[in-house]
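Tokens in:
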């Protein structure tokens, strides 16, 4: 008695499934071995203590950059060197001026006369220059200068000397202000120029993968970072030096006012004070 078609059909399906499972089990090891052979080898980690070279650093920026990129980088380096030179030299000049101010307080007002007091000061200092200017103005009040009141003439001479000292203290501050305001834009120009060339190279190559985009764009952004690194110290140094200049000039102006009073009082502070006391008593 033969089996019905309904019974034979499940048997056929079962036989086909067993044959397919047998084929897959036999082919799986071969496929796995082929996939393992074709897979890329894993990248071995760098040994401990070994430094990995950055292929997109400053060296690559300088080596791959054109004349405009290199020129922009050179300009930023020159601006940074100039700003630091101004900051260091102005700090030295301010320290020297404060030292001369302490010497003037200790030696000038205790001398017997203005001439002796002036000779006791440092000949290269600002206070010696101001005292010498006031002393010469008083001694050379002759000729056409006699038409000017002695008080006005001596005051103008001392004020001109103070203005010269102030101008000397402010030398270089304009450079710091210029560097602080323009360095970020110069760095931004370098970044825009670098990104433009990076996108042009990517378009020519026809590849826009992450390694083709991130490297050149990262190199271009270094220009903006350098511009900010140049501008920030310049701005901070400018504000700091301006505040210190104000404090130093206050001491210089106070010395000029006292010197003016001494010169008009007879050239000796103690003599002028004695005269004032005598007039008050008389």
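Residues out:
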């Amino acid at each position: 008695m033969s089996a019905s078609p309904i019974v034979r059909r499940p048997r056929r399906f079962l036989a086909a499934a067993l044959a397919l499972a047998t084929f897959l089990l036999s082919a799986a090891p071969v496929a796995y071995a082929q996939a393992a052979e074709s897979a890329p080898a894993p990248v071995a980690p760098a040994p401990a203590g070994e430094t990995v070279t950055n292929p997109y650093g400053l060296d690559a920026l300088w080596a791959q950059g054109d004349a405009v990129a290199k020129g922009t980088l050179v300009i930023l380096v020159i601006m940074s060197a100039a700003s630091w030179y101004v900051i260091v030299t102005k700090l030295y000049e301010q320290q020297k001026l404060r030292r001369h101010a302490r010497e003037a307080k200790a030696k000038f007002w205790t001398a017997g006369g203005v001439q002796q007091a002036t000779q006791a000061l440092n000949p290269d200092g600002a206070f010696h220059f101001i005292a010498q200017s006031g002393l010469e103005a008083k001694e050379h009040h002759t000729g056409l200068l006699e038409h000017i009141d002695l008080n006005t003439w001596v005051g103008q001479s001392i004020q001109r000397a103070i203005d010269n000292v102030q101008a000397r203290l402010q030398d270089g501050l304009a450079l710091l202000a210029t560097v602080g305001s323009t360095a970020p834009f110069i760095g931004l120009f370098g970044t825009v120029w670098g990104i433009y060339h990076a996108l042009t190279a990517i378009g020519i190559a026809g590849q826009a993968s992450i390694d083709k985009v991130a490297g050149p764009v990262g190199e271009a952004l270094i220009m903006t970072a350098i511009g900010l690194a140049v501008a920030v110290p310049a701005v901070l140094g400018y504000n700091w030096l301006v505040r210190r200049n104000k404090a130093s000039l206050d001491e210089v102006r106070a010395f000029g006012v006292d010197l003016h009073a001494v010169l008009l009082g007879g050239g000796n502070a103690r003599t002028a004070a004695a005269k004032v006391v005598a007039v008050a008593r008389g």
